[in-house]
Structure formats: C-alpha cells, structure tokens
C-alpha cells in the first residue's frame, strides 16, 4: 500500500504517470479508508490510465469491467457453463442411469436427480466475471469499473449493493465474501448523470485537461526525442484548440499522438502545411478541423510576425560606423 500522499506521487511517477497533489491525496485517502473513487472528466485525460498505474504501482492485477448499455448482472458477476454441464451429463449418463435405478415414477426420478444437484451446480461449472473475480481473488487486486455512466440505472443500483457488502450470493451454491476489499475505481465521461446514492459511497475526483506546465512534462516523458521548440508550439496549439467550440475536444492522448507523429515526420516546428497535413490525427470531425485550422493559422502567422519584428534592426539604434 501507499505510505503517504507523496509516496503516491512518487510511485505513480515511476509508472510514467504525472499527477498533482490533489489527485494523489484522493487516491491515498480512498485506499486508506476503503472507499471507491468515482473519477469524472473528459475522455482521454487519463482516468482509465490512473487505475492501470495504481495497479502497477501496487504490483497487483487490474480487473476491468467495461460498462455499456444493456450490461446485466450475469455479464458482470458470473455465468453457468451450460455446455460443460451438458458434456458432463453425456459422459456420466451411465452413472445417472444407476442413480435412477429402482425409481418407478417421474416424481421419484426427479427427486433422486435433485439429490445430485451439487454435482452439476458447483464452482467447476461457474464462470466468474469481473466482479466475482475481484471478490473471490486469493491475491489482492485493483478493480476498475470503466465508463459506469454508460450502464443502465438498474445495473448502477445493483453495483451499490456489491460495493457496499463486497459479497455475492449464488443461489445454487451460497454466498461468496471478499477475502480482501480491493481498491475500486469507477470512471465516467458524464454521458449520463450519476445518482446521488452512488456518489455518496465514493470519493469524488474530477480530472480536467492538463495545464501547460503539466502537459509539457507529460509530453517530454511520453514522447522522447521531441524538440523543445516543437513541444512548446504543439502545447500552445493544443491549448488554443481546446478553447474553440468543438464537437469533440482533443485531450492529452491526442497531444501525445500528435507529438509522436511530428517526431516521425522529423518536424522541427509547426507551420501551416504541417498543421493541415496532420490535424486529422487529433480531430475527428471535418467541422472541428476547419475551425482549428483557422485558429492555428492566426496563431502561426502572429508568431511569424513577432519573429520577424524581433529580428529586424531597431531604426532608433545608432550606426557607429557612420559616426566614424
């Protein structure tokens, strides 16, 4: 486990995840208090990645439940492996015939077979899904419930019970209680409003787009070899793009993709042609691309004018050669 807030920051940094003290504090407190973390924010800001690096930093397996509309308890908890049960039934049909020997009515046969229910409804035929795997794991794990906002209200209500008790009841077998309570992280892109009941049971963490300084550190760490001038221009461009009214605002993941692409293209700096050729890497809608092109052209032309002005000689300067 983590020893302090500073320990969280240091160990996440070792996993190449740059974070601030606010995030590290929530992570530390959630693990110490045994409470889930509900992480909200735009897509691509590192919500899922945070769960991954926490698992790596703690040297634990990450068990991930990907939520979607229509997800039900069976897909999240467990399923019976009916094909395996049928196969065993066929293999053991001789034994089944022996068990039925002496029965004369259908009722007697059913009663005799029901005595053997524990043979076919046992853990050997149970297929654990993410939630049950996290609860029954013999070794400590980290549980990620990803994009919980996409799940139906009924499933979210079911989650409340599981996260409160950390036990699962299988009618045919019994109740499975967690051997240890795992750190739980739920992520949301705000596609649907989270219920107050779910929020009450979690520590809340909002991860927004990074500041210039934080984005620069992440870019330097994740895209080795990028030139300082190019990195500065790229981050300035991304910060400007995020201020535009876009259908899909690019996040830090797009910054990294753009940076890697520019390094592969041996770019030294941003110019209008390079922007036009590569902007589709970070923007997925034609309308967004056109808006960004206009904004970045203004930015690049303004920057070019500043450079020319700074390079031009000062007309007020005195030419000493003429004085001589």
What this model shows, in words?
There is one protein chain. By secondary structure, the protein is α/β, with parallel strands linked by helices. It has 3 domains: 149 residues, 3-Layer(aba) Sandwich (Rossmann fold), CATH 3.40.50.300; 47 residues, no CATH class; 97 residues. It has 17 helices and 9 strands. The strands form 3 sheets. The protein has a 5-stranded parallel sheet with strand order 2-5-8-1-9, sandwiched between helices. The mean pLDDT is 86.
Mean pLDDT across every amino acid position: 86
Give the % helix: 40-55%
- What would you call the structural class? alpha/beta
Q: If you compute it from the alpha carbons, what radius of gyration comes out, rounded to the nearest whole angstrom?
A: 29 Å
- The number of helices is 17
Low-confidence stretches: none
Show the helix and strand layout.
Elements: H1 5-14, H2 21-33, E1 37-40, H3 47-57, E2 61-66, H4 73-76, E3 78-80, H5 82-91, H6 93-100, H7 106-114, H8 117-120, E4 126-128, H9 130-136, E5 141-146, H10 153-165, E6 167-170, E7 174-177, E8 184-188, H11 196-200, E9 203-206, H12 212-222, H13 228-241, H14 252-264, H15 272-278, H16 286-311, H17 320-323
Parallel strand pairs: 1-8, 1-9, 2-5, 5-8
Antiparallel strand pairs: 3-4, 6-7
């Amino acid at each position: 486990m983590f020893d302090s807030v500073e320990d969280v920051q240091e160990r996440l940094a070792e996993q190449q995840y740059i974070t601030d003290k606010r995030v590290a504090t929530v992570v530390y407190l959630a693990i110490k208090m045994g409470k889930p973390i509900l992480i909200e924010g735009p897509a691509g800001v590192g919500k899922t990645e945070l769960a991954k690096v926490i698992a790596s930093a703690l040297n634990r397996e990450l068990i991930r439940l990907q939520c979607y509309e229509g997800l039900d308890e069976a897909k999240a908890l467990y399923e019976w492996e009916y094909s395996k049960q049928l196969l065993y039934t066929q293999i053991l049909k001789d034994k089944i015939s022996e068990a039925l020997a002496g029965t004369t009515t259908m009722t007697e046969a059913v009663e005799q077979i029901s005595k053997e229910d524990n043979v076919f409804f046992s853990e050997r035929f149970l297929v654990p899904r993410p939630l049950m795997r996290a609860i029954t794991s013999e070794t400590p794990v980290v549980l990620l419930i990803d994009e919980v906002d996409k799940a139906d209200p009924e499933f979210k209500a079911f989650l409340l019970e599981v996260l409160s008790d950390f036990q699962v009841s299988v009618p045919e077998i019994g109740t499975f209680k967690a051997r240890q309570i795992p750190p739980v992280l739920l992520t949301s892109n705000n596609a649907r409003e989270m219920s107050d009941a779910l929020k009450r049971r979690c520590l809340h963490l909002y991860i927004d787009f990074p500041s210039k300084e934080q984005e620069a550190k992440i870019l330097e760490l994740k895209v080795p070899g990028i030139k300082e001038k190019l990195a500065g221009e790229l981050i300035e461009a991304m910060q400007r793009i995020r201020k535009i009214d876009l259908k899909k605002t690019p996040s830090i993941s797009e910054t990294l993709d753009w940076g890697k692409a520019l390094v592969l293209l041996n770019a030294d700096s941003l110019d209008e042609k390079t922007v036009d050729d590569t902007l589709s890497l970070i923007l997925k809608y034609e309308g967004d691309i056109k808006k960004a092109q206009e904004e970045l052209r203004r930015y690049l032309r303004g920057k070019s004018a500043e450079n020319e002005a700074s390079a031009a000689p000062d007309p007020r300067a005195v030419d000493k050669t003429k004085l001589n």
